[in-house]
Amino acid sequence: MEISEFTEFIPGLPNDLGLECLTRLPHSSHRVAIRVCHQWQRLFQSDEFYNHRKKTGHTRKLACLVQAHDQPKHEDEKKPTGSVSPSYGITVFDSVDMSWNRVEPVPDYPLGLPLFCQVASSEGKLVLIGGWDPVSYEPMTTVFVYDFRSGRWRKGRDMPQKRSFFAIGSDQGRVYVAGGHDENKNATNTSWIYDPRKDEWVGLDPMTMERDECEGVVVGDELWVVSGYGTERQGMFEGSAEVLNFGSGQWRRVDGVWETGRCPRSCVENVKNRKVRRWDELDYRVRVGVNGVMVGSRALVTGSEYQGAPHGFYLVGMEEGQNRKLIGISVPSGFSGFVQSGCCIEI
Questions:
Q1: The pTM is what?
Q2: Is the pLDDT of residue 77 over 50?
Q3: What's the CA gap between 278 and 259, in Å, rounded?
Q4: Backbone angles phi, psi at 252, to 5 degrees
Q5: 124 close to 149: Cβ distance less than 8 angstroms
Q6: Other CB atoms within 10 A of residue 240 CB
Q7: DSSP state string for 121-152
Q8: Which residues does residue 277 pair with via DSSP β-bridges, in sequence order?
Q9: Of residues 223, 226, 215, the one with CA closest to residue 247
C-alpha cells in the first residue's frame, strides 16, 4: 500500500497538506484518530505512514519497561498476611511530556507477564520473548508482538529452543537472541534472529563459548554479548564478550571488557574503547537493582542505594560533554515498582 493511494485525508484540504497535519498529530492521539474513519485507520496502522513519520522526524522514542506491579485484588479474596508477590506488566515512559502509561496485558497472561521475559523493539512494535510461566515456573518459548499502531498483541512463532537469561538486541527490525541456558540449566552458545515481519526464526553461527546470564547491548552495527559463564562454571562470570557484526553475521571474541566474577544482567550501559560501561557506576543511588534504557540523548535509569531501599527513577544526559548527573523524577502512584528490563521503542 502506498500513501498516494489515499484520497482527501481532510475534507477541503489538498492531500499533501492533510497528510502533513496527520503526520504531526502526537502518537497519544492516534487511538482516537483511527476511529474517525476507515481511511484514517488504514493510514495510521500502515507501515508506510510509520516510515513517513520517522523520515520526517515526527516519531518519538519511549522507554518500554518490564515493571513489577501488584496483582489486582478481588473483593472475595482474603487480605494477605505478608507482602504481595509482584506480577509484571509493560510500562511506557515518555521523557518529553513525562507521562507514564500501561500497555494492555498479553491476553494469554492477564495477571502478569512470564517471569524474566525479554523485550526488544522492531519498527514501532514491541517484541516479548521467553521467560518462565508465572504459575509453573517452566521455561517458555513463546513470542508476543505488541503493535502500538493498533494497540493489540499478536502471538508470534515460538523460539526454536527453550532458553532463559539470554542476551537480546535488535537492528533494522530484526531481533537477535544469544546464549542463556536451556530447560535443564545447560548453558548454550547458540544464537538466532527473529524477524517479526516474516514471523520466522533463522539460526546464526554459534558463539565461541557457552554464555549463561549474559547481557546484550547494541553498539552501532554490532551486538555485544557481555560476560556469562559455561555449564561447568556456574556463576563464574567471564571478563570477555562475543561481538556479532550485523552485516557479516560473524562473531568475534573480545577479552578484558568486563569485571571477572560480576553479573552483567541489566548493568551494561555501553561499550567505549573496548571497555564496557556500567549503569551502577553512575551514582551511589543506583548501586542495587539497576536498569537503564536509552531514550534519545538521555537515559532513564532506575535502581536503589542498597538492598531494600526505595526504588528511584532518574534521567541522565548521555551526550559527549554532559556531566552525566542523575536527575530524580517523580513517578505517579502505581509506577514505582522494580524494573526488571526494558528497551527503547520509536513510535
A1: 0.90
A2: no
A3: 10
A4: -140, 150
A5: yes
A6: 20
A7: EETTEEEEE--B-TTT--B---EEEEETTTTE
A8: 270
A9: 223
The domains located in the chain, with CATH, are: 3-55 (no CATH), 61-277+334-346 (2.120.10.80)
Q: What is the C-alpha to C-alpha distance for residues 56 and 49, in angstroms, rounded to an integer? A: 11
User: Would you state the pLDDT for residue 70?
Assistant: 57
Q: Which strands make up the sheet holding 99-102, listed edge to edge?
A: 99-102, 87-94, 61-69, 339-346
CB 214 within 8 A of CB 228: yes
> Does the pLDDT value for residue 19 go beyond 80?
yes
Q: In what order do the strands lie in the sheet with 118-122?
A: 118-122, 125-129, 143-147, 152-155
Dihedral sign (CA 105, 108, 109, 111): positive
The residue-averaged pLDDT of 154-174 equals 96
Instruction: Please check the confidence at residue 75 and state whether its pLDDT lies above 60.
Output: no
225-251, pLDDT tens digit by residue?
999 999 999 889 999 999 999 999 999
Amino acid symbol at 229: Y
Length of the chain: 347
- For residue 135, give Cα distances in angstroms to 113, 114, 140, 198: 11, 9, 12, 31
Handedness of CA 106, 111, 116, 121 (dihedral sign): positive
- Cα dihedral value 73, 78, 81, 87, nearest 10: -30
Q: What is the CA angle 32-36-41, rounded to 5? A: 80
Distance CA 259, CA 227 (A): 9
For 183, left (φ over 0), alpha (ψ -120 to 50), or beta?
alpha
- CB pairs under 8 A, 24+ apart, for 45-48? 45/147, 45/149, 45/150, 46/1, 46/3, 47/123, 48/1, 48/2, 48/3
How big is the CA angle at 215 (ends 117 and 206), to the nearest 5 degrees?
95
Quick one: pLDDT at residue 326?
94
